[in-house]
Amino acid sequence: MQKYAKLALNIAREQDKYVVLDADALWMVQNDPKIVKGYSKAILTPNIVEFKRLSDTLVCRGSFLRYFFVTRYKSSREFPPTPLPPR
Prior knowledge:
Blueprint: H1 2-14, E1 19-21, H2 24-31, E2 42-44, H3 48-58, H4 63-73
Parallel strand pairs: 1-2
């Protein structure tokens, strides 16, 4: 199934389309982050648990971590993001 998800993502990228990635797609990004690297029209929507898993796996410090916060919480009124504990 991930083979087809990657294919769909590649087609969307070639056609310069926006994509929203959630749930299993975030797991796919966690395991193969290069599929969204540099793709500004890929919108990642992790919940707090998915965010923690992504940040732990990708060792997201600096700009990548800020990208996730902006992507997820920029327009969200759910709650302010809780800072991740120091490693």
